[in-house]
Specification:
The protein is mainly β and about 90 residues long. About 10% of the residues lie in helices and about 35% in strands. Strand 3 and strand 4 form a beta hairpin. The protein is globular, with a radius of gyration of 13 Å.
Length: about 90
Amino acid sequence: MTLILTYDVSDRLVEIDMSDSIDVFWRGISLVGRPLGEVLSDLANEGFHPDEFELESLRCSALGLSLYTPAPEELEEDVKHVILDPIH
């Protein structure tokens, strides 16, 4: 299992990174180890859509989570990591 906790200089937890070797759920939706397209569809059914895109991640700011996959343009590629961070 990979679980990485990141703290700021004040020792506040600012990020939790979970890999696909564990089950990560939000409102009953499995977020890792499944095709990105399926995860995005399930989140859309709950009214959430990614609003920020980086090289290997799609971020849903309203949820404070990012989905990481090696090829975010390939919807059949599995989500490998989920990162949770504070909602700003």
